[in-house]
Target: Alanine aminotransferase 1
Amino acid sequence: MRADEIRAALATPEGKAKYPFPSIVYCNIGNPQALEQKPLTFFRQVMSLIDAPFLLENEKVISQYPADAVARAKEYLRHIGDRTGAYTDSAGYAFARDVVARQINERDHEIKPLVDASSIFLTDGASSGVRLLLQVLVGDASDAVMVPIPQYPLYTAQLTLLGGTPAMYYLREKDNWALNVEELVLAYDECVAKNNATPRVLVVINPGNPTGGVLERDVMEAVAKFCCDRGIVLMADEVYQENVYAVGKRFLSFREVVLGLPAPYNTDTVLVSLHSTSKGIIGECGRRGGYFCLTNFPAP
Model:
């Protein structure tokens, strides 16, 4: 891309003379450690002991680690058989999915039915989860995915690879990039009429990327009903759920909203929610971790 061309030019005397700045700051993607955010030491300590469990046998080494990091590493190693180089279950370690399920239930105020590990799939980042899901849900150009504009370009790029059809819906800039269901209806009808494609998935990014908008419950309820009424899978990209700073705003998950709706919406709205270790307070983009959680998906 153009930024890479400029970066290469800045490495030459001619480029240094041409541009009025010495380096490039990449702001096209959330990549906090590239911008010198330091990783949390606890995570790195635990991971180092898991990857090199023989260190646990060296008292001099262990004396340099906090007791809680040592205890956590031993707990994880017990679950994974003291090794990290073997294949895992396709959906990820069962004990880790149990932990994720507990966190989701706590976050969503224990709303029923509780999620369990069977609905959780661990992925190497939320992006790979998106790719896997779209491979299942998109067959050809007759299948469309509704994508917000402005958007994170992962979705349209993946649709291009799969031969699917993007159906763009526009966030309202004058209303702080709000999502309006009227725009969804317009985009849906236009896609069917002009592209001869049926929307199968609606992508909602909440909190918004790149807009930063945080959805209110009434809007989320209307979105869920829109999807349910049309048989659309609601794909909730919620990777920035820990990054809400505006006074009076708080993150609310689509799972909690959907399950709190009256029948039939609480049981018939098909939802997949995505999260990532790349964002929030963790910021481990290069370590690759994430999950998606299925709600109301029909049994195979």
Q: What stands out?
A: The radius of gyration is 22 Å. The mean pLDDT is 93.
